[in-house]
Amino acid sequence: MSVDMSRGPTTERKDQILQAAIELIASEGSVNLSMRALAGAIGMELGALQVHFRTWEDLLHALVDFISEAYDHAFEELAESSRSHGPLETVRFLLYDTPGDATLQADRLFPQLWAMAQVEPVMQSLLDEIYCRYLDMLEEAFAEAGSHTPRTAARRAGREALLKMVKQSGVFRSEAQLLILGKRHERRSHDADRGDTCSVK
Q1: Distance, CA of 88 to CA of 75 (rounded, Å)
Q2: 125-153 burial, b if ≥16 CB within 10 A, otherwise e?
Q3: Could you tell me the pTM of the whole model?
Q4: Could you tell me if residue 154 is inside a domain?
Q5: 14 within some domain
Q6: Which of 26, 83, 107, 175 has the most CB within a 10 Å radius?
Q7: Is 98 helix (H, G, I), strand (E, B) or coil?
Q8: pLDDT tens across 38-64, in order?
Q9: What is the mean pLDDT of residues 18-43?
Q10: How many domains does the chain have?
Q11: pLDDT of residue 74
Q12: Which range marks the domain in which residue 142 is found?
């Protein structure tokens, strides 16, 4: 993500700190993100970091907003870049693409965020929103490809892609953890189906 210089030096510095937090999570794992670790990673004193983010909760909420904005941009680009994108290209978006021109390192970051979501409800809300938007795009791609059951096809493909990505990441090391993750995903999908949409507008 290129920093918008018109936003001012304080916002620019916050964006740099949040980008460093993403890089720390992607390279070291979500369990290694703390205010002190982040300050050390960017060569700041903890007190200087707390000028920008007073508490862990402030940092976490800002990180969620930053990631959400990058994914919004990436979803818009995916939708605009090829109206003819098919299911395969949409699945690849989750598995391999890096939203926001290298901002997120999604293949490594997304599974780590999922691990964080087990203890941070605000992160779970973010992931639900991202995943719902992804499923909506996937459903549309299946419909355009002529599927008679695009919603079912989207959920199946989305689940398989997500579990593959998480398994490859090594974040969830045991089959039992992956099974729990799959069951949680199935429950959310079922709840979304009862509401007839997964979209978070």
Answers
A1: 15
A2: ebbebbbbbbbbbbbbbbbeeeeeebbeb
A3: 0.74
A4: yes
A5: no
A6: 26
A7: coil
A8: 999 999 999 999 999 999 999 999 999
A9: 93
A10: 1
A11: 79
A12: 61-194
